[in-house]
Fold this sequence. Notes:
Number of helices: 6
Low-confidence stretches: none
Strand order of the largest sheet: 4-3-6-1-2-5
CATH superfamily of the largest domain: Nucleotide-binding domain of ferredoxin-NADP reductase (FNR) module
Oligomer: single chain
Mean pLDDT: 97
CATH class of the largest domain: Alpha Beta
Amino acid sequence: MTHWYTAEVTEILPLTEHTRQFNLCIPELENFEFLPGQFITFDLPVGEKRRDRWRSYSIASAPAGNNQFSLCIVRNPHGKGSNYLFEEVREGSKLTCKGPDGVFTMPPLTGRQLIFVCTGTGIAPFRSMLQTIDQKTLAFDSIHLIFGTRYSAQVLYRDEWEVFAGKYSQFRWDVALSRESCQPFHSGYVHELYTSLYSNPVSERHFYLCGWTPMIDEGVRRLKEIGYSEAQIHFELYG
């Protein structure tokens, strides 16, 4: 039987004009256990039917051995769920949630060249993974984080990736801006960036994609056209 918890919002941090980080805790638990990359589901008071009320969000923080976790949420002007979270929820608000769920979790870190590709708040599961690697000092061979958005002001957690890259020489990160030309970032769409960088398939290379359905569909199609196998393409889609 599914168990629902009452989560309390402890802090709300603005990340961009339309994106916020919600920090929460589950008071009834000493330790909220989850795997990096998993998600939780809210039951929000925004409709009568389950499909109207339930909203799932990837956890954007590493398991910390306590009852706390973070979410990275963008406001959809036409979305009942995100509008409720942005307009009605404050620090101290209580939300009903269940989880964790999901199988888009930490991949093998050695013996693979990992390419993390995301747009917008699709960064959330990768932030959880990278925080875990850093906090637990996990060994990894190669990780390339590639983030796509429209404008440089929308790049999420930029300071964190700069620090991570400074600590680990086997980590690199790039940003593709589709509506702006801004150094040191690339101009164009995210698909153009990673397909040009990795146009020669090798067996140890694996792609992990997270974003909205059209982004995932195009990414899978492009990678298969280049010659990557289904076993080398992993994804988590939103909507």
